[in-house]
From TrEMBL:
The lineage of its organism: Eukaryota, Fungi, Dikarya, Ascomycota, Saccharomycotina. This is Ribosomal protein L1. Keywords: Ribonucleoprotein, Ribosomal protein. Residues 26-39 have a biased composition (Basic and acidic residues). The keyword Ribonucleoprotein applies. It comes from Hyphopichia burtonii NRRL Y-1933. GO terms for cellular component: mitochondrial large ribosomal subunit. GO terms for biological process: translation. Pfam families: Ribosomal_L1. It comes from the Eukaryota.
Amino acid sequence: MFSRSSIRNLIRTYRTSAIPKGQRPSPKDSPSDPKELARRHAQVKAFNRRSPKLHPLYMNIPTALKYLRAAEVGQPALKTTISLMINVIPEKGSIPLQGSIFYPNSFKKNRVIAFTNNEEEINNLKINNDVLVGGVELINQILNDEINLDQYTQAYANESISKNLNQIARKLGPRGLMPTTKRGTVGSDILKLINENNSALPFKQKGRHVSVPIGRCDFSDEQLLTNLKYASKAIFDSQPKGTKKPNTIGIAYLSSTLGPSIVVDIKN
């Protein structure tokens, strides 16, 4: 039998009031000393420049793929996306990384909006069910919110109609659908533009990361490795040439829809 003193020690007290927790530090409390900020920035850069093999979450790529596939067992193949995320440490005034990846092993079906007044181009593109094509009427439909833009992944325009797109720039721009000459989505031959870029996947640096899908779990290791090479090369090549303040491209991670993030080496 337990003594009263021992029973008293086993009793767990009940409180009706919450135990105060430590408050999260406010952004206002972050260091403002330039020297301290520079020191921390240098630490982050040094950490991301280290060999990924020194990271506790490091695995070689084939092993990482095995773990990610295991995490997706029982899931539909179309929902098992494997993604690459790379840390990017920007310098003050540096240009964010952005570009397009042309995957040899395509896994995402693109739906395209094509703006043109050329009747021949309209008739040729109407055959493709994944292309919404039109001229001024299509622009007015978008302006009046008659088209669900979220279901489209790419947009192209003929030079003859590109100036008319300014009135719907606020609707296309936030979705990455605004055709521009700089991005190579405006030209005189819209059919050629679509055929050359239909397998392209655009990417853009957000904050301190670039994240892109590279395939699905039902892809073979060879297909995923090939796509991974194309993705990493496109991201490294997107570094603005001749810039005095290049971004530091750091640690890379592979992850899946339900799986963990695993550090991998994409530089070698």
